[in-house]
Amino acid sequence: MTWHEQLLVRVNDRYDRENASDGVSRYGAYLRQNLGLFRDGWSDEPAPIKNPAEYAIYAWQVATGPIMYPGYVQFRPDLNRVSLHRTDEDGSLYADVHIPLRHSHIGGNTKRFPYSWQDWETEPDYSSDEYRGLQEPRFNKKPSVLASAVVRIPGGEWTHLISPTAYEGRTLVDEARDAVAVVAQLINEDAGPIVARVLDERRGL
Fold first, then answer.
1. Pick from 73, 63, 74, 75: nearest CA to 34
2. What does the pLDDT average to over 93-115?
3. How far apart are CA 25 and CA 136, in angstroms?
4. Largest alpha-carbon pair distance within the chain?
5. Would you list the DSSP string of 106-125?
6. Pairing assessment for the beta strands 134-135 and 9-11 based on DSSP bridges
7. pTM of the full predicted structure?
8. β-pair type (134-135, 147-154)
9. Which of the residue ranges 2-6, 70-74, 101-105, 130-134 would you say has the lowest mean pLDDT?
10. Measured between alpha carbons, how far is 194 from 9 in angstroms, rounded to an integer?
11. What is the pLDDT of residues 155-188, one digit of tens each?
12. Cα separation of 98 and 68, whole Å?
């Protein structure tokens, strides 16, 4: 699948299956190492967590770095990360998409930083993909200004989130995979147009 402006995240089932130590799912192995996340800590008897938003966050956390690398969920190379959270007020779900910004993208023609100040560096070009990744400067002998933007998407109205029925076993793996697939689709649909607009504005400076 080729990256494009509306595709920010994707689930790599083929890589997950082909690199699985159990021959089924590499993601499943990481889930088994983190079963405590998916158990309801308020229940006297073993039971899965009940809140679909909470479940989605944990399934996403296990599917991405730093827990799982390469992740079961992959981010477009020009994005730093995509994370899920819940608000302190009502516990509703939201997603943050972190986009690194080069110096030339900050302030348009009204602001220019000294040439000696270091910027994000382009990662080695392993493909002809236009969405090149950026990394921190390799050397720290000069000042660096590393800017980024965050696109925050509310997920309180997201439908079709998975209501979990298991905290272990094959059912947990299947439901967690479904959960991250649903979230990935919703992030692409809701955040994709906004990120595309941000990048269009950057390219027009």
1. 63
2. 81
3. 32
4. 62
5. SSGGG----TTSB--EEPP-
6. unpaired
7. 0.89
8. unpaired
9. 101-105
10. 14
11. 999 989 999 999 999 999 999 999 999 999 999 9
12. 19
Cis peptide before 52 (omega within 30 of 0): no
Q: Which amino acid is at 101?
A: L
Q: How crowded is residue 28: how many other Cβ atoms within 10 Å of its Cβ?
A: 22
Burial 125-162 (b: 16+ CB within 10 A, else e): eeeeeebebbeeeeeeeeeeebeebebebebeebeebb
User: What is the structure's pLDDT at 107?
Assistant: 61
- Strands (DSSP E) contained in the chain are 9-11, 73-75, 81-86, 93-101, 121-122, 134-135, 147-154
Per-residue exposure over 110-123, b if at least 16 CB sit within 10 Å of its own CB, e if not? eeeeeeeebbbbee
State how far Cα 29 lies from the chain centre.
20
Looking at every residue in the chain, the average pLDDT score rounds to 89
Which tokens in the block code for residue 204?
């027009």
Dihedral sign for Cα atoms in the order 4, 27, 94, 105: negative
Give, as one character, the DSSP assignment of residue 48.
B
pLDDT digits (tens, 9 = 90+) for 4-26: 999 999 999 999 999 998 888 99
Location of structure tokens 């608000």: 87
First-to-last alpha carbon distance for the chain, in angstroms, is 30
Is pLDDT of 204 > 70?
no
